[in-house]
Write a structure and sequence with these properties.
It is a single chain. With 787 residues, the protein is mainly alpha-helical. It has 28 helices and 7 strands. Helix 18 packs across helix 25 and helix 25 packs antiparallel against helix 26.
Length: 787
């Protein structure tokens, strides 16, 4: 689920495709093509969920087969996965074979006489038990990864891929879908229901065509081999990045304390606590209890890792250049040929992934994988993606050059003899001096803000915002659901007008580098569906924020606040859906380049006065954020906006070009053409000419978005959707952010369109229903300071 938003904001998404293209959701972890994942409280379940979705004779012994409520996280162990998958696969294959016989024509010239309810809802019910179990496994693989679970997951993934391929390549099912597509709609159904069904059928037919339903013989066999291999490669890529991240640590001993001079206390406390926790983790079971030193933020030792809450402060604040360089290079070269273990090198994996995706695309009649990817997105062509990218770059690149010149000038002035004549800063210098420039420009340090952003208060403020905008109440329900870690919280969402329980969600807020992958993501635990009698959607919201240290609560950076709002935006689209057709309810069926609209929309409220003052209170004194600090926070919004925009444009275009026919991965592997790193530099020349990658740069080896997630030839989606999200927030600006009555009116409209219609209505139609017109880039350029 993804590592780069603006520079250090991470979010990973995973969108569920239509039921018959469920295979798309089988990527290794919650960063996969399902942009969000799959899996509610016992008391809630009894009233709102089916009493028996699937229960086998061994259910009492296997919690993965108990599916009438929320996952039984306290009971689930890796050993349960294989027997659960085997039992569910056996039932699935039997049920689907029986269904296919009802779709088989007696006379080839005679049209099938079928109704909608005889096809997609039945398929959804057949797939649901395995989807539930595999979704739980995928979720735990991302948040509670371990050798035993990893082995069980990798062992079962090929079986699941093979079984689900039956659906995407079933000719009888395809014929049935075509038959109901041609059939006139039942006039007794509401227009919204009819639109949902049409979208579900259209998505399913397209998904099956992209899933190889038209292939035969050896070509079909090869296509399926590729699907299996890609699933395995994607899992390996993700595991290698996680292992490489975990394997690095750097301990600064007490005698070297001067190397950390000027580093904020919060970072030093985090690193000191990490050192003590590491010592404790090294004690073997049965060993005599050891007395461990107390955490000492001022005297250390300090253990720095590549986990983002640890890594980022190191780059921003450690004054020692060599120390920064060591940490930066370790992160930059994760899972590459530069790392310690050859078997953890992702370069061969990248080449094989690119080669297989090109082969797959050509088998389906596309010139390249980028075209295949865009076949299910809003963007009409590769050229249209480049057109938007170049439009933004024309504004962003000149701004970025000026921003970097200003940073470099400060480094020359304040960096001593080592930097006084420097022409270009090294990348491990840029973040450090950028932070110093921001502090000098705005006379405020990020560290001064953190005491005002305690996680419990931020949650209260965020929930207060959605109360204002969408007329919903978020209520803590800890204890109503089993959780996979003591830090995990559980909440319910209620409609304030009716009091109805609308949805629930889990929140896993803190980093756990020992077993939780990096980034932030929203995944669906349970999706709304009339077919499976699921009325209450449930989401997972996962972040990797700064954990509490000692008796101090989690004091968030402002970036972490924005990321939390971002993920909650995804969650709201999943949870507030009014769609009842499972394949297009919530985030399901939403085009990939539109799915970031609600998430990026929510970030804008982090600069709204009533919203910020709803949570920005000093965690010890309760004093509100001083007015001058709030103003500086708003002024900082466009600081380095050009550099941040260029970085995203660079990633998006590099992704597209890697997946076009102009890049030959076969030739690259033989040394006969440009390598992936040559292409990276080529793209950088146009989009980040001010900050070219180092010769040793191996960022691609950890680019999980496109090699272990659902963003292959789709990373551009962040900017594409940002045009819509900025314009959507513009509707609130148009009525006046201080006009509470109008803000609530527009908020209800946003809920009734963007958040409610899900994938049941094409995203452009949804946007036009909310805004009254098609999106324009003006608001995004203005918000970014690039107008």
């Amino acid at each position: 689920k993804i590592q780069t938003f603006p520079p250090q904001k991470a979010q990973d998404m995973k969108i569920k495709a239509s039921a018959v293209f469920f295979i798309a959701s089988l990527a290794p972890s919650p960063t996969s093509t399902r942009a969000f994942s799959s899996r509610v409280s016992r008391s809630v379940a009894a009233a709102n969920l089916p009493s028996r979705l699937f229960m086998s004779s061994t259910a009492t012994a296997n919690p993965l087969l108990e599916q009438e409520g929320l996952p039984k996280f306290e009971s689930i162990e890796p050993k349960h996965l294989t027997p659960a998958v085997e039992e569910l696969l056996q039932k699935l294959e039997k049920d689907f074979a029986s269904l296919e016989t009802t779709f088989t024509k007696d006379d080839s010239d005679k049209e099938l006489d079928l109704d909608y309810d005889q096809v997609l809802p039945v398929v959804e019910r057949i797939q649901a038990p395995l989807g539930y179990t595999w979704g739980v496994a995928a979720h735990l693989n991302g948040v509670k990864n371990g050798d035993e679970l990893r082995e069980a997951y990798e062992q079962n993934q090929p079986k699941v891929v093979q079984a689900m391929t039956q659906f995407s390549q079933s000719k009888p099912l395809y014929d049935a879908l075509e038959a109901i597509e041609k059939k006139s709609a039942d006039a007794s159904d509401s227009p919204f229901v009819l639109q949902q069904r049409k979208r579900a059928i259209d998505n399913s037919l397209r998904g099956m065509r992209l899933g190889g339903v038209g292939l035969e013989g050896a070509e079909k066999e090869r296509f399926n081999e590729i699907k299996l291999r890609l699933a395995a490669l994607s899992t390996n890529f993700s595991n290698n990045v996680l292992d490489a991240t975990k394997s690095f640590s750097l301990t600064v001993e007490t005698e070297d304390a001067t190397k950390l001079e000027g580093v904020p206390d919060s970072a030093k406390a985090l690193w000191a606590n990490a050192h003590v926790q590491f010592l404790k983790s090294q004690q073997t079971e049965g060993e005599e209890p050891t007395e461990f030193p107390e955490m000492n933020p001022q005297e250390g030792p300090w253990r720095i890792t590549l986990d983002m809450p640890s890594y980022l402060p190191a780059l921003q604040h450690i004054p020692d250049r060599e120390l920064r360089k060591e940490i930066y290079m370790a992160n930059l070269q994760r899972a590459s040929e530069k790392s310690d273990k050859d078997e953890k090198n992702n370069i061969p994996i990248i080449y094989e992934i690119l080669e297989l995706k090109q082969e797959m695309a050509k088998m389906l009649g596309f010139e390249n994988y980028a075209q295949l990817s865009l076949a299910s997105k809003m963007a009409p062509s590769v050229e249209s993606v480049k057109e938007l990218t170049d439009l933004m770059a024309a504004k962003a690149v000149p701004a970025a050059k000026k921003e970097l010149e200003e940073i470099t000038a400060l480094a020359r002035e304040k960096g001593g003899d080592e930097l006084k004549d420097v022409e270009e800063l090294m990348p491990w210098d840029t973040t450090f001096w950028s932070e110093r420039l921001k502090e000098s420009k705005f006379d405020m340090k990020d560290e001064e803000l953190r005491p005002y952003f305690a996680l419990p208060a931020v949650l209260d403020g965020m929930f207060g915002l959605v109360d204002r905008l969408f007329n919903i109440e978020v209520r803590a329900a800890d204890g109503d659901a089993e959780v996979w870690h003591p830090d995990v919280r559980f909440f319910k969402i209620l409609d304030k007008e009716s009091g109805k329980h609308l949805a629930s969600f889990f929140l896993d807020p803190f980093s756990r580098p020992e077993n939780k992958r990096g980034g932030a993501w929203m995944a669906d635990c349970i999706g709304r569906s009339e077919a499976t009698n699921r009325e209450i959607p449930v989401a997972y919201l996962t972040c990797n924020g700064s954990p509490p240290v000692g008796k101090t609560p989690s004091l968030m950076t402002f970036r972490e606040v924005e990321t939390l709002f971002h993920e909650f935006g995804h969650g709201l689209q999943h949870m507030l859906t009014k769609a009842t057709v499972g394949d297009v309810a919530g985030i399901n069926g939403v085009e990939w380049d539109a799915v970031e609209l609600p998430s990026q929309f929510m970030e804008n409220w982090c600069y709204d006065r009533p919203t910020v003052y709803g949570f920005a209170k000093h965690w010890e004194t309760g004093e509100p954020l001083p007015e001058d600090m709030f103003q500086k926070l708003c002024d900082q919004k466009i600081f380095n906006a050009g550099m941040m925009a260029c970085r995203q444009l660079y990633f998006g275009q590099m992704d597209i070009e890697l997946h076009c026919e102009t890049f030959d991965s076969k030739a690259a592997q033989k040394g006969e053409g440009k390598t992936i790193f040559d292409l990276q530099k080529e793209v950088a020349t146009k989009y980040v000419p001010h900050s070219m990658p180092l010769e040793e740069d191996r960022f691609l080896c950890a680019f999980g978005h496109i090699f272990a997630g659902g963003y292959s030839a789709g990373y551009y989606s962040y900017k594409w959707a940002e045009v819509m999200s900025a314009d959507a927030f513009g509707a609130f600006e148009d009525v006046g952010l201080d006009n509470e009555e109008k803000i609530q009116e527009v908020g209800r409209k946003f809920r009734d369109t963007v958040l409610s219609l899900g994938g049941g209505v094409p995203p452009m139609e949804v946007f036009k229903e909310f805004r009254g017109r098609e999106p324009k880039p003006d608001a995004l350029l203005r918000h970014s300071g690039l107008a």
